[in-house]
Amino acid sequence: MAFEEIQSAVAEGKPRQAARLVEEALAEGAEGTAILNQGLLGGMRRVRLKMQDDIDVARALASARAMKEGMEKLKPFLEQGAMNTRGKILIGTAGGDLHDVGKNIVGYTLRYSGFQVVDLGVDVSAEQFVQAVRDNPDAGIVCISSLLTTSMPEMRHIVQALNGLDNRRSFQIMIGGGSVTREFAEEIGADAYTEDAAAAAEFAESVMGIKE
To answer: This protein's superkingdom (predicted)?
Structure first.
């Protein structure tokens, strides 16, 4: 099967079609990693490129649902290869935002890439992020997601609170989501901005690497 079909299903926001195409690709013997990287994530990259010219939140959400449905079919095949040996990452959606699809996609991609992921959930306050860092002193990255512009002030507050911790040098702060930009990340003092799940995994690998 051509992975372009899966990409199109995701880019066009067709959840049922995406799930069916993933099942067909698996039945034909395609590797889970190829379906994820060349199919599902490829579709999300196409959405991101379109949104650079025309921001359509409804389309982005539909594509995220299609990605989620495809991932559900793929998950058992990817879990076989997830070893969780590269280090620990905390992830959560900023306070005031109840969206979890993007966060979940990033979290699962990180898990498959070999990281242990602690999911803090949605509507996570600065205090909850700080407590999570204290409870997990071995975490190397804190990921903060935000789809809504209304939650960006809370994301700023979260980053400020994390930057004030005594062990700040022991972890990196990565932010992302539909409302976030690289400029905003720099402005609030985050270490990195990533545009999609693939970029998040690449950043994590560059920062943490494989821990023997």
So the answer is: Bacteria
Which residue's structure tokens are 């990287």?
37
114-126 CB burial, b ≥16 within 10 A, e <16: bbbbbbbebbbbb
Residue 178 CB neighbour total at 10 angstroms: 19
Phi, psi dihedral angles at 166 (to 5 degrees): -65, -30
Residues 1 and 28 sit within 8 Å (Cβ to Cβ): yes
Q: In what order do the strands lie in the sheet with 192-193?
A: 116-124, 88-94, 139-145, 172-176, 192-193
Q: What is the pLDDT of residues 141-151, one digit of tens each?
A: 999 999 888 99
Q: How confident is the prediction for the chain on average, in pLDDT? A: 87
Q: Which amino acid is at 94?
A: A
Query: Under a CB-based contact definition with an 8 Å cutoff, are residues 47 and 41 in contact?
Result: no
